[in-house]
Structure formats: structure tokens, C-alpha cells
Amino acid sequence: MKIERAYFANGVERAVDELADEVIRLTKGTGAYGGVIGLSGGIDSTATAYLCDYAFGREGSGLGLYGIVMPSDANRDEDKEDGLRVAKNLGIESVVVPIEPIADIFARQVPGIDSEFHRGNLYSELRAVVLSRVAASKNYRVMGTGNWDEDYVLGYCTKRGDAAVDNNILGNLPKRLVRELAAHLGVSEDLVNRVPTAGLWEGQTDEGELGYTYDAAELIQNGFDQGYSASQIEEITGFDNRIISDVVMRHANTEHKRKVPSVGKVSLLYGVRE
User: Fold this and answer.
1) Mean pLDDT along residues 54-81
2) In the 3-class helix/strand/coil scheme, how is the chain assigned residue by residue?
3) Cβ atoms 102, 122 nearer than 8 A
4) 184/1: higher pLDDT
5) What is the pLDDT of residue 40?
6) Residue 164 CA neighbour count, 13 Å, CB half
7) Residue 199 predicted with pLDDT over 70
């Protein structure tokens, strides 16, 4: 028994062009003039920025790209510098908007922001507000930076934060292929191999919080998608059943993040009242 992984069907170069076409379609096709992207210095936002820059740089696209770096006390100084480095390397306009002062005011006025977890998610939600407002002022679209492992498999995203985007161009790619795409686009090796973090609190890393790697989550979900049982996946991969169960639980419990809001069902009769 073997679990198959996804690969670029026609090679990474062709994949870049396919995704570039999609970026232009999802942006220009909605009447927008460009895209706004949050630059954390992480591999997902960096890969998305490089891809958008490549797509928008095509002759005649007429689309602009605007980067926003949004540091907080949860971030290292290097995170801010890496985000600015990405903007500089691409030659795009960018701005720094510190999130912590906004969060301080919010937390003083709104009850419930009483833990590291809630404050961390508040940071993500405030970043979404900044991106949304800047995008609206420019008639740009908010470029999502999620990947398949995070958003689809684990739902490891803040619903009204980093998941609140206009498109998620890398959403079908596991982290593994995001890294391959980024390397092909010319992203520096240190950013390609940077440890993933959502920047929710100081010292936080995604895989440290989860207790397993994104590659493991990808392989487990591939196994279920290919019809294997949990026990078979355990036998094939050698992963502890606790890890497999956690992936199953997270995928099920975050289904609401992958759907449009539910509406109530009610019987209606259409007609013209006199």
C-alpha cells in the first residue's frame, strides 16, 4: 500500500504560468486595479507576492501590487525586515502598519481578549481589517496567502482574519509545493526554508503548536482522500494514531471555515399582493 502525493502535472514552470493566469482572472475579472498583500516574510506570503508580481508584470496587465507589513509584539524584528525585503526585492510599494497599538485599544474596550490565544487571533483579525480597508481605498483585491495543508486539511487559520480574503491563489498547493514554487520564482533560500509561524504570540510556530509537520498532515489527508482507513494510514506512514486522530478532528471541526455562511430554511410563497 502506498499513499500518493500531489505534484505539478506539467512541471513547476508551467504551474507558475497557470497560476499567473488565475491571478489575473481573479483580479482583473472582478474590475479591480490590483492586489493588496500582507507581507510577513513567511514562505506563503512571499510566494504569493512573487507570483502576483510575476503575473501583474506581464505586458498589458495594468495591475498594481501593494504590500503591507503588520508587525506586533509576537513577531521577531527579523519578520518585519523579511517582509520589507520582499517588497524591496520586487520593487513594489509597501507600508508598515504596527498592529499592537490598535490591539491595545481594542482589548481595553472589548471584553474577552484575556488570553494569549485570543489576543493572537485578534492580531490576525486586525491585519485583515487593515488589508480590507486599504484594498477598498484602491479598488484592489486582498490576496490570500493560505495553502492546502493549513486552510483545507487543518483549518489552521483565523476565520475572520487571514481567511478573510478575496482569493486564495495557492489554496490547492500543500506547503511542500509552495516551497517548490517559491524557489522557482527566485525566492531566497532562507525564506523558502523559514519555519512557519502565524505570528500569534511570541515564539509561536505552527508545527510546534500542532505537534507534527505540515508534510505529515498532507500525507494523512491524502490517505483519507484515497480511501484508506485510519489504521491503514498508521500502518503505511508509521505516524502515531494520536497525530492521525488530531488531523481528522481538526478537519471536521473547521468545516465551517471552508463554507459560505449558512442561511436558515423557511417556506416562502412567491406572488403579487394586491
Assistant:
1) 89
2) CCCCCCCCCCHHHHHHHHHHHHHHHHHHCCCCCEEEEECCCCHHHHHHHHHHHHHHCCCCCCCEEEEEECCCCCCCHHHHHHHHHHHHHHCCEEEECCCHHHHHHHHHHCCCCCCHHHHHHHHHHHHHHHHHHHHHHHCCEEECCCCHHHHHHHCCCCCCCCCCCCECCCCCCCHHHHHHHHHHHCCCHHHHCCCCCCCCCCCCCHHHHHCCCHHHHHHHHHHHHCCCCHHHHHHHHCCCHHHHHHHHHHHHHCHHHHCCCCCCCCCCCCCCCC
3) no
4) 184
5) 92
6) 16
7) no
Residue 121 grid coordinates = 487571533
- What pLDDT sits at residue 198? 66
Environment class of 154 (CB within 10 Å of its CB; exposed 0-12, middle 13-18, buried 19+): buried
pLDDT given at position 204 = 74
One-letter amino acid of 133: R
pLDDT band, very low/low/confident/very high, at 201 (cuts 50, 70, 90): low
Give 79 or 241, the one with higher predicted confidence. Answer: 241
CB 56 within 8 A of CB 169: no
* pTM tops 0.70: yes
Q: Which three cell numbers stand for residue 127?
A: 491585519
Nearest C-alpha neighbor of 120 from the set 207, 206, 212, 242: 206
Say if strands 64-69 and 141-142 run parallel, antiparallel, or are unpaired. unpaired
Beta-sheet pairing, 141-142 with 34-38: parallel
